[in-house]
């Protein structure tokens, strides 16, 4: 199965549960360095979007 990420790239998902778990972990990630705030916010948006899309996909399958 596939899902499109925030950048419109097609991502192949081979283990949906693992992908949801990983996206959930990554959306919480933050650097300690305050200079990384903008980068962290962009990455958190990316992973939150991907997590939501993966979760929606799982809900459609059940």
Structure report:
With 62 residues, the chain is mostly helical. It has two helices and two strands; from the N terminus they run E-E-H-H. It has a two-stranded antiparallel sheet with strand order 1-2. Strand 1 and strand 2 (10-12) form a beta hairpin. Helix 1 (16-26) packs antiparallel against helix 2. The longest helix has 25 residues, at 37-61. The model has no long low-confidence stretch (mean pLDDT 92).
In summary, what is this structure?
The chain is mainly α and 62 residues long.
Strand order of the largest sheet: 1-2
- The percent of residues in helical segments reads 55-70%
Give the count of helical stretches.
Answer: 2
Morphology? elongated
DSSP, total strands: 2
Secondary-structure class? mainly alpha
Order of helices and strands: EEHH
Mean pLDDT: 92
Biggest sheet details = 2 strands, antiparallel
β-strand percent reads 5-15%
| N/C terminus separation | 15 Å
Question: Radius of gyration from the CA trace?
Answer: 13 Å
Residue ranges: pLDDT <50 for 5 or more in a row?
Answer: none
Q: Which structural traits does this protein have?
A:
single chain; 58% helix; two-stranded antiparallel sheet; 62 residues; 2 helices; mainly alpha; 3-isopropylmalate dehydratase
């Amino acid at each position: 199965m596939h899902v499109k990420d925030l950048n419109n790239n097609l991502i192949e998902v081979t283990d949906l549960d693992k992908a949801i778990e990983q996206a959930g972990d990554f959306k919480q990630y933050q650097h300690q360095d305050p200079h990384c705030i903008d980068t962290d916010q962009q990455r958190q948006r990316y992973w939150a979007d991907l997590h939501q899309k993966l979760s929606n996909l799982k809900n459609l399958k059940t």
